[in-house]
Amino acid sequence: MKKLLIYWILFFCSFGAIAQKSKNSLPIIPADQINQLLVLEPVTYISLINKGNQSEPSDSIGQISKALWMDLVAANQGRIPIGKMIADISDHEKAFYKSEVEDLFVKADNRKTSPNLKIPPLLYQIMEENNSRYVMLSYLSGFTRRKGNMGGQVAKSIGIGILTMGMYAPVPVKAYSNIYVLILDKETSQIAYYKKSLLAEKEPLEQKVLSKQFNQIFKGYFF
């Protein structure tokens, strides 16, 4: 239930940022000051749209999304200063880790003027154990559809359009891929960098889509 709430909070905040101005304009730490990043596994919330247009979170799809993202980050090691990557948080810490990361992204997305953001206990401990000043966190969300589902939704949209004489015809969205990235500075408890990429009609499990979003997020900062 909490993960669903986090998803919608970030989703609506993101549209607010698009309608106004990107919230990435707050002071950040220059990229050349970050010589090593501790990259931790992303938190994912990817839903599968089933028959009847019903949305259901999928852990298996989330695992695929996580693996694709970590592979992409590793492949770009020459473009961003990766010091160490931790692809799997231990099982007994995973629930606490997810909760801390989700809360951080909500706070980062809703911050007003200050880049200060207190690093929660477990995350701080992980950074201490790995002797890391900077940590990179990622939150991947969105949805994809079961094969054949989109055709049914298009047909339904056309039917509604006919019944309403063209006054109302909902346009179904095929897929959505959202990626949020946050870099934190342990020494100053500040946001070093925060940016997101939101792509409608793009599959969250396609490598080329994730590559495009990776470039959108880091272009102009690390490269």
Shape: globular
As for the CATH topology, it is Rossmann fold
Number of strands: 7
Q: CATH architecture, please?
A: 3-Layer(aba) Sandwich
The SSE order reads: HEEEHEHHEHEEH
Broad CATH class: Alpha Beta
Low-confidence runs of at least 5 consecutive residues: 12-27, 149-171
The domain tally reads: 1
Strand content: 15-25%
Helix content: 40-55%
Task: Give the overall pLDDT as a whole number.
Answer: 81
The computed structural class is alpha/beta
Radius of gyration: 19 Å
Biggest sheet descriptor: 7 strands, mixed
* Termini separation: 38 Å
The number of helical segments is 6
Protein name: DUF4136 domain-containing protein
Keywords: Signal
Structure in words:
By secondary structure, the protein is of the alpha/beta class. It has one domain (2-17, 32-147, 174-216): Rossmann fold (3-Layer(aba) Sandwich). The chain has helices at residues 2-19, 59-75, 91-110, 121-129, 149-163, 207-218; strands at 37-40, 43-49, 55-57, 82-86, 134-145, 176-185, 190-200. Strands 1, 2, 3, 4, 5, 6 and 7 form a 7-stranded mixed beta sheet that branches. The chain is globular. The model is unreliable at 12-27 and 149-171 (pLDDT under 50). Keywords: Signal. This is DUF4136 domain-containing protein. Residues 1-19 form the signal peptide.
